[in-house]
Every structure is written in C-alpha cells, then in structure tokens.
Amino acid sequence: MHTGDQGQRAEAPAAFLPPPGGWLTPELRIDAGRTGPAGRPPQDIRLLGQIDLPGEPASAAKARGYLRVVLAGLGHPRADDAVLLVSELVANSARHSDSRLPGGKVTVAVAQHGGTLHIDVIDAGSATSVPWVRTDTDAESCTGRGLWLVQALASAWGWVECDAGRVVWFQCAGG
Asked: What CATH number is given to the structural domain containing 120?
C-alpha cells in the first residue's frame, strides 16, 4: 500500500487504513456486522454506497452528483471536500488509467467509520503511470492539480495495486 505524497509508504497508519487491495474493492465487500481477523474493516464501518461509471471524463460529474446524494443526509462537515476530491480522482482515472479504453469502468465506493468518510476510486490501473503529486504546475495550467488537492484536503490518502487494477483512496475526518 502506498500513502501520501507520490506513493511513499506510510510510517504510521492513519486511524483505519485499508488492507492491501482496500476494504471497498469488488473482491472485499464490506459487511458492517462482521468481525474478523486483522485486516478486516473495523466493526463499525458502514458502506454508504458504490457505483460503477464509464471510464470517461463525463463520469467526474456523475461521481460528484452521486456522492452529493449519498452524503446528503449525513451533515458531514467535509462533504464538499469529499465531492471535490472524488471528482478529481475519477477525472484522473478517465485520463490516465486503462479504464479510459473502450468498455473501461471506474468504481466509486463510499464508507463511513465514526466521523470519517472513506472513499475508494477503483480503476483498471496503468502499466505506464502511477499516481504522483505534481509540484511543477504553473498558475496558467488547466490540469495537474488533482492529487495535489487530494494531498491538501484529505485527512489521509494513498493508493494500492490490486486484482481489480488500482485503488486510490482518501479519508475526510469530520470536525
């Protein structure tokens, strides 16, 4: 698993970092009532929703709309940040991953653990690129700020390669 800036390994895990492959990947669905060995999600993690979207740029707007609906009744103080960040990650998937190829998809999964939102964006990955935070984007550039925003606004974030492709995840801790 990679966390933080440019996929560096975490020295100290956040409150509930997912195991390799993520908790919310298609292979590891959450069952909030289940307890189990280490590597399982905390007992009180709750899956709020999951959606599969086409691997195309328009899916960023669909992901924003979906997340707004999912988070509407929660009153989470970081909901707007989460909506912005999921949009950036889905746009990155549609631009940089193999999900952009015909028939490709991007999956967004949303969970809550206490006051923390946890969001996975799962795509097909890419043999030619890995997530990294650009530091060379100038003020006039129209792109290149997605992971910079994730790094700036998320409480924790990271990425991991898995059987499904790649999971880029982030957390937004409440107040």
From this structure: 3.30.565.10
